[in-house]
Amino acid sequence: MRETAAEVTQLQDLIDRSLARTRPHMRAIVHPGKYSLSAKQVVKLLDGLKTIAVAAPAPNGDPLVAPMDGWFLHGKFYFSSSGDAVRIRGLRKRPRASIAYFEGERFLINAHGQAELMLRGHADAGEIDAIFQDHYGSSAFDWSDEGVYVRLDADRFYTYSRSPNSFGT
Question: Is the dihedral of CA 168, 19, 69, 120 positive or negative?
């Protein structure tokens, strides 16, 4: 876990704001406060490499979803790709994406927001690049002339579990 106490608080505030904005249908499913996970639980669940489902637009606007290697750092999701990938070309036109990480009915973590494309030289790419180099032995920048990391700056963040107490605090 790389989150500071302030980042965990910010994530909890985002989760709380997101749940407060739910409509009746979703509230009837997630029962905010009853079937939701806390930011501390989310950070523990998302420690290390995870296979996440990333939904992003194609250049023509069609929705695309695919599994990607993902990391959760400082309360935000990250993944990588090549700049010539259809998903990245779509994000250049419409920089919004959604990410889901789930295990059946056990839990769901779902985030939606602005996708920040981090090309070589981006001020915030250093830490995620170092993590990739440590994990894979190389960088996303090594895999393609147009290697890119993507950070999801979520404006909505939902959690769900039928048994949130089983994840500790």
Answer: negative
Residue owning tokens 């509230």: 27
Q: Which residues pair with 111 in a beta bridge?
A: 99, 157
pLDDT tens-digit map of 28-59: 888 888 899 999 999 999 999 999 999 999 99
Contacts of 75 (CB under 8 A, 6+ apart): 3, 7, 8, 10, 11, 14, 39, 43
CA distances for 6 relative to 3, 9, 13, angstroms? 8, 5, 10
Q: In this predicted model, what pLDDT tens digit does every residue of 121-157 receive, in sequence order?
A: 999 999 999 999 999 999 999 988 899 999 999 999 9
Query: CA-CA distance, 147 to 169, in Å (whole number)?
Result: 37
Which positions ≥6 away from 153 have C-beta within 8 Å?
76, 113, 114, 115, 116
